[in-house]
Amino acid sequence: MAILNELEDGGLAERRRDPADRRRHMVEITEAGAAALGWVDAAVGEAEREPFGGLTEAEQTLLRGLLDRVVVNPADHECGEWKVRRNKSGGTKSGGTKSGGTKRGGIR
């Protein structure tokens, strides 16, 4: 909700009650939001031109398709001795123990 609040405060999105079901909110992008989205798309395109410039259009399409299939959920992966876990508030934190059993950084 915090992101939606920021978008709404910035005039980029509008939230209103669904007339068919007052428990639900409907979110719509504003004209300013659409303009900002267009600017972001252009900036991303510009940023991608250089690193992907050596690839053909077909190779770029293939790469994007492969990257879209990569699912990254930090709660499901371990990195060395550290495991990323969900905390009670829904966020993630790293934690673990060294092989000697000592807590590192005070995170469990």
From TrEMBL:
Region feature (Disordered): 1-23, 78-108
SUPFAM superfamilies xrefs: Winged helix' DNA-binding domain (SSF46785)
Residue ranges crossing the lipid bilayer per the database entry: none
Top-level taxonomic group: Bacteria
Feature: compositional bias, Gly residues: 92-108
Residue stretches of biased makeup (Basic and acidic residues): 12-21
HTH marR-type domain ranges (all copies): 1-72
Biased amino acid composition, Acidic residues: 1-11
Protein name: HTH marR-type domain-containing protein
Protein's organism: Streptomyces tanashiensis
